[in-house]
Amino acid sequence: YAALSYCWGTESCFRLTSTTIRLLEVGVLTAQLPQTIRDAVYATLQLGLEWLWVDSLCIIQDSREDWEIEAAKMGDTYQGCSVCIAALGATCNSDGLFAIRNPQLYAPCFLAMNARGESIYAYPWYIDLSEHPHPLHLRGWVLQERLLPSRTIGFGAYLTWNCREAAVNEFDLLGEEKRGTSELSAKFSNLCLVQPLTVPSTPGVTSESHQIRKLWRLMIQDYSHTKLTVKTDKLMAISGLIATIEKRTGWKNIYGLWLPFMLPNLLWMVSRTSTETARTGLRPSWSWIAVDGP
Known about the structure:
Elements: E1 2-5, H1 21-26, H2 35-46, E2 52-53, H3 55-58, H4 64-72, H5 74-80, E3 83-87, E4 109-113, E5 119-122, H6 142-147, E6 151-155, E7 160-163, E8 167-169, H7 184-194, H8 207-223, H9 239-249, E9 253-254, E10 257-258, H10 262-265, E11 278-279, E12 291-292
Parallel strand pairs: 1-2, 1-3, 3-6
Antiparallel strand pairs: 4-5, 6-7, 7-8, 9-10, 11-12
InterPro entries: HET (IPR010730)
Protein name: HET-domain-containing protein
Domain Heterokaryon incompatibility: 1-145
């Protein structure tokens, strides 16, 4: 099955509720669904898959009990999917997956043949992708949706592919694989998903534990720049990541801090340059979860 990672936005749309559950069991027309979900259905079928998991259609939205059960399993849902379809450029569920764009900005343009019969192409100017952040990555729940799937196809201003072997995009004109050793997803995959599980050792400063602790700090720094509609979701939104690291290491997480390293974990601070930092109202106050912002 495929799993969809997308932004809901503020628009009301057709979703699973206690009122619509019977209708959905019978079946609905895709025309009744938001554009992003319609496009994801099309992409799923084109990939040869039959099933698509979408949170708004798979969790009863007006049932707190169902939400708590399914939200706790969301990490497993994304980790277990065959592919994650990410609506990178959509700010709401009506934007869709597919962008209309000028192909000459993205693909080499054939000019002529030279005397030796070789093709001559004009290539687009290099684009610094770091200057074009994806709107999807500003959503708090998306961090675990980025890191847990084994494969992700991203649709936005440009196409991306991420798996446990490579991270590439359509600007890689020569097809060179970027191993992504500096990418957060690659580090998480290598440390927590790909390597075989070992018997957890007693907490200590081993090379592996040091790398995982360093990775966790990078993850929290990234997470602190995202936004959550419901502030109390702060730990639930990364519960899949926490569970994966707990399984990998045997450590226990307490309010976002790792118990074997509680003292150094308490030495966090807010960014001195941030103007967006505020209190979330969550407890305890000694954990980073009490702060909203970097």
